[in-house]
Amino acid sequence: MKKLINKPEDFVRESLEGMVAAHPDLIKVNFDPTFVWRADAPVKGKVAIISGGGSGHEPMHAGFVGMGMLDGACPGQVFTSPTPEQMLAAAKVVDGGVGILYIVKNYSGDVMNFEMATELARSEGVRALSILIDDDVAVKNSLYTQGRRGVGTTVLAEKICGAAAEQGYDLQQLANLCRRVNISGRSMGVALTSCVVPAKGTPTFQLGEQEIEMGIGIHGEPGRERMSLKSANEIAEILVLSIVEDKSYQRTVREWDETKNDWVEVELTNPPLQAGDRVLAFVNSMGGTPISELYIIYRQVAEICRKCGLQIVRNLIGAYITSLEMQGCSVTLLKLDDEIIRLWDAPVKTPSWRWGI
Amino acid sequence: MKKLINKPEDFVRESLEGMVAAHPDLIKVNFDPTFVWRADAPVKGKVAIISGGGSGHEPMHAGFVGMGMLDGACPGQVFTSPTPEQMLAAAKVVDGGVGILYIVKNYSGDVMNFEMATELARSEGVRALSILIDDDVAVKNSLYTQGRRGVGTTVLAEKICGAAAEQGYDLQQLANLCRRVNISGRSMGVALTSCVVPAKGTPTFQLGEQEIEMGIGIHGEPGRERMSLKSANEIAEILVLSIVEDKSYQRTVREWDETKNDWVEVELTNPPLQAGDRVLAFVNSMGGTPISELYIIYRQVAEICRKCGLQIVRNLIGAYITSLEMQGCSVTLLKLDDEIIRLWDAPVKTPSWRWGI
Question: Which of A50, B18, B249, B333 could be disulfide-bonded to B270 (CB atoms 3.0-4.6 Å)?
Fold first, then answer.
């Protein structure tokens, strides 16, 4: 294992310490329990947004803490869910008096712990709701997931809901918006190489010299198919068509219902993308793929979208949700409307995302 | 070779096409000769800044074309100097009537071709000057270089001079500023893995499972020493101390003298860093190292600077000057003053760098 780390067990702590040392004007960090929060939190009268999950996907989530995005982030150990204790502690620090929205990627550990944190927060008088992101079209049910995994749309939901919170949306409006972003987004990824979890020290999976894993999960979970290495154009086509040809996706998820004061099953449907739709195209590096290659992928993503009648009106290209040093990329297409575009364009200032300020 | 590319010979062109497809509001591209330029160029009455060099270091330089940074970028093939023809063509397109500053990394091919381009531009009535960046303390004279190589300080010079041009500095003032940034900056890098040049298809150099190359060049040129894998803290210490302990560095470089209408030898000296100096600390990914690891390096860079009495008042952490998918990082320390800090903080809007707008 070759990494710029000290002891594997110190990876998460030291990386966060470095991030805070670099951005003391933007974020603060607490350890035991571990969470990162906006240096100016709590923002009175603003709904606070908290996300979190296993580490190893940086800059998500801690790199997105700041004005216009997250109020708090709860990093677990690498590829390991954070605890309800972390989520509750973060909520208490960032609560501006009008509630907390937890944005949760659909992995069983994350879901369980954020549900618990939602209940704990409410029991302590902090109004909290949690919304699930489950946008990965590659597979249904996976190593750590019931249903679809939560991937690239998480980044977009954090940006869009962060802007909305800044603009005064109340908690229920934000939950509705986040749910709408989730059912408007679809993603799929590909791995050229495995990542190496620091504590393990060996590759999570084995790929031959000419093999790729199509539909990879962000923890190295198996995808749809192991296939021979393909050109960037072929890879982009598989990723985009898997998204575009994905049928109406229906499932039920658990959400807290404030009127019933209990968890309820909510039916969700992603309508299929249609010619004429405006979309945001997000081409994301898995960590080890440089931006030069992402642009080659984007070039073909744009071409295929054009052929499908999809109008790319916004894009995002770079390393936002990674799998340590894995080589590969993911593509997310998010259906847009005027409201979401307006929120997307709003200013943001975090360690890894700074626009307009 | 596993990359997200199509034919190796199309790597540069397709990557640029993707970049322009993603950012048509910011940049335009021309092929044969190849250059990228600001969509709103020429900006009348503003000195235009052009840089360039071999491709494979993205986002540098094309990703830095836009308001507050570069007016043009001339990408060569991977790790291959661009031609004087490219540089001249770019100059003619972006010239706002008050001259061109070429920012040139110290590699023999780049130096020769930018000198020729400077002469060609002048012969066609476009006032042009070129300033060299030679900031890599690792080695003197290298595979492609007389003197020290030009690395991380290039990125900082492009940002700082870009801001100054926007604020109305004239050509001579900009050349003076760029020279001053160069002699205020020092860098050193380390490689954990080799990169693979697409046209070659095999690693540029071989490193054992437990080996690193300390002082690596951005084209995989040999560094100071091949050594056994070390902890992030040890690596950060070697990089920072190599910079901090670097003595007064004197050399002569060739610059165009407008009063003599000829090339002259200019004596340059980097004074050593001293306790009490304010610095910008730049921790850069070589392309394949994720930001989580960069923050672990930054954490120790900050600690060692503190011990040396250096005051880090600005920082930059991310992948800005890369070597394809190489794993590793570089550290640059740039001595700051009030003028440079003010220019650093100025707004910028390019495909890969967007602040304040």
Answer: B249
Contacts of A234 (CB under 8 A, 6+ apart): none
Q: How confident is the model over A212-255, as pLDDT tens digits?
A: 999 999 999 999 999 999 999 999 999 999 999 999 999 999 99
Q: Decide if B23 is catalytic.
A: no
Q: From CA A250, how far away is CA B355, in angstroms rounded?
A: 40
Q: How far apart are CA B195 and CA B201, in angstroms?
A: 10
- In three-state secondary structure terms, A306 is helix
Question: Checking DSSP bridges between strand A27-30 and strand A35-38, what pairing results, if any?
Answer: antiparallel
Amino acid identity of residue A306, one-letter, is R
Q: Give the distance between the most distant pair of CA atoms in chain B.
A: 56
Residue A116: pLDDT band with limits 50, 70, 90 = very high
pLDDT digits (tens, 9 = 90+) for A204-213: 999 999 999 9
Of A290, A302, A327, the CB nearest to B21: A302
ipTM of this complex: 0.98
| Residues 6+ positions from B122 with CB-CB distance below 8 Å | B128, B256
Element (H, E) at A328: strand A328-335
CATH ID of A13-185+248-271+338-355, from 1.10.10.60, 3.60.20.10, 3.20.20.80, 3.40.50.10440? 3.40.50.10440
**Minimal Cα–Cα distance from B262 to chain A, Å?**
38
Handedness of CA A314, A151, B16, B222 (dihedral sign): positive
Q: What are phi and psi of B20, to 5 degrees?
A: -70, -35
In the predicted model, what is the mean pLDDT of residues A49-56? 98
Tokens read off for B152: 């991380």
With a threshold of 0.90, does the pTM exceed it?
Answer: yes
Nearest-CA neighbor of A325 among B237, B22, B329, B190?
B329
Return the DSSP state at B69. Answer: S
- Residues A25, B319, A231, A203, Cα dihedral to 10°: -80
Contact B289 A6 (CB under 8 A): no
Measure the CA–CA gap between A69 and B1, rounded to whole angstroms.
38
* A64 touches A57 (CB < 8 A): no
Comparing C-alpha atoms, which of A110, A86, A67 is closest to residue A351?
A67
DSSP SS3 for B15: helix
- How far is it, in rounded angstroms, from Cα B158 to Cα B164? 10
Burial group, residue B44, by CB count within 10 angstroms (0-12, 13-18, 19+): exposed
Contact between chains at B324 and A290 (C-beta distance less than 8 A): yes
Region B267-289: mean pLDDT is 98
Q: Identify the H or E element spanning B225.
A: strand B225-228
Are residues B354 and A352, on separate chains, in Cβ contact within 8 Å? no
Helix and strand numbers, DSSP H then E, in chain B: 8, 16
Q: Is pLDDT above 90 for B357?
A: no
Q: Are B71 and B95 in contact (CB under 8 A)?
A: no
pLDDT 10s digits, A266-277: 999 999 999 999
Q: Is A23 marked active-site? A: no
> Given B22, B299, B356, which is nearest A17 (Cβ)?
B299
Q: What CATH number belongs to A187-244+274-335? A: 3.30.1180.20
Question: CA-CA distance, A44 to B159, in Å (whole number)?
Answer: 36
Instruction: Count A/B contacts: CB-CB distance under 8 Å.
Output: 180
